[in-house]
Amino acid sequence: MAVVGLLESLMTAKMVDDITDTHSRKTREAWGQGAANMLSGLFGGMGGCAMIGQTMINVKASGARTRISTFLAGVFVLILVVALGDIVALIPMAALVAVMIVVAIATFDWHSIRPATLKRMPISETVVMNSPSPSPSAPSAPPADKHSPASSDPSSKSPSSSDSSTSPSGYALGFSPPPMKTSTSIADA
Fold first, then answer.
1. Cβ pair 15, 56 in contact under 8 A
2. 49 or 178: which carries more pLDDT confidence?
3. How many CA atoms lie within 13 A of 8 on its CB side?
4. Has residue 66 been placed in a domain?
5. Residues 151 and 144 sit within 8 Å (Cβ to Cβ)
């Protein structure tokens, strides 16, 4: 995860450098992020990295140009989580999804998929960008042993020894979602 976070931070720094025509010290960024993540781990915290979406909105939509904008964005998120956490929890998930879709549309470089742009790109990059992503295929369940008692008696058949790779609930390989938590009141107990 450290490598993924570092790559995301360096990619974010490169994109901001290109947009703002500035130069950042990426080695300093990498050392600082590594030291901060190790120190955070010593106190039981989670590691972190730069966030491309937040940064692009901050730079492109808001016109931010200095590091104070990043600090203020962090302070705003801290206030939302700590002081207004109960209110933020009331926001419907559909509204948050809509915000993320708007952010994606606002930050996407629509010029990159125009036919004129695709014709100028190397064919290898165009093929990779336009190829559909592979769908994860679930491995099939191993065949049941013909000599085992479970295969001779259909009533004793377990979900893991079934002929198909799906469980009775329809989830692949016998996995099913965890049971939903229900809240109980003191009167129910």
1. yes
2. 49
3. 16
4. no
5. yes
Domain range spanning residue 46?
1-50
- CA-only gyration radius of the chain, Å: 25
Is 26 among the domain residues? Answer: yes
Q: 96, exposed or middle or buried, with CB in 10 Å at 0-12, 13-18, 19+?
A: exposed
The length of the chain in residues reads 189
Residue pLDDT, tens place only, 20-54: 888 889 999 899 999 999 999 999 988 888 888 77
Domains contained in the chain, number: 1
Range with the lowest mean pLDDT among 6-10, 47-51, 102-106, 182-186? 182-186
Q: Which residues pair with 172 in a beta bridge?
A: 166
* Residue 16 resides in a domain: yes
**What spatial distance separates the first Cα and last Cα of the chain, rounded to whole Å?**
42
Which CA distances in Å does 26 have to 21, 31, 54, 63, 153? 15, 9, 19, 22, 65
Give the pLDDT confidence score for residue 39 in this predicted structure.
Answer: 94
Which amino acid is located at 142 in the chain? P
Please report where in the chains the tokens 């939302």 appear, as a residue. Answer: 80
Look at residue 85 and tell me if it is in a domain.
no
Highest mean pLDDT among 49-58, 92-101, 176-185: 92-101
Give CA–CA dist 33/31, Å, rounded.
Answer: 6
Say what the pTM is. Answer: 0.49
